[in-house]
Amino acid sequence: MYKTFIVFMMVIMSFVMDLNPYESISVPEFSDEYLVGFDYGGSSWGEFYDCLDAKVIICTNHDVLILMPTAESIRYKNMYEYEEIGKITLTDMQYSNIETVLDREELYTLKIRSEKDVCDGYSMYLYLYNKDNTVAKECGAYMPTTERFIEIYDAVIDNIPGKEISDIREKNVKRLRRYEILGGKTVDDEEYEANRSMIANELDLDPNLRKVEIIISRYYEFEEGLIKSVLHGTENVDEYLYIQSESGNEYRFYLDGVGVDCIYDITKDEWPVRSYR
Hints:
Number of strands: 11
Structural class: alpha+beta
Order of helices and strands: HEEEHEHHEEHHHHEEEEE
Low-confidence stretches: none
């Protein structure tokens, strides 16, 4: 009897919501600069950086700002601090297609229903901004079912240059990942990619593998720059990677299953990294 009553009340509430799909709440004065924002690009599964969204803000002057957390705030702080990593511009048609469908006051007061019984779903949110450009409201839900919200959301997403935004995000994700791998050191993009490719090619491995990243991170502990040459070899039962830097210094990196076991500095005739075996 009790369960029947609960189901009945849920049906009544849904019916009432359909009759009045808007909340009776006061609406703030919206930003003159920011039209609407949203999260973009992060995967729903994978490692941390695969799942890291870019925040995208569509401006009233047709600019699209792309922001991501700073490397320092990811590494050292509990709360992210965002920085602009790119900016593109919408065409007049793209902006008009969004502005025609998006009514900020309507979106702010719209009741958005959610299908919460879905286990492996997704979230859809749009951000509205106050006069001072702070977030006024996150409008959306997990697996939203409100058709009007979905119409607005689709109008925004369908009229942005998604590939350009994804490329900007992906480039920055590589930078953030590299910052972590190198323990907070900053390295030139072209130099890092060149060194990583040389190591990966010599080992016949995917450059994105963790083992390659570990080797290159250990290399940069010696404050070296470009790699001049790399040679993969074996000594008795030990596998090693001979590396000569552009400055002329020579190293022998003895490898294990996950990365580097120990390192012999040939130039200085010393073992800066000793084996734990």
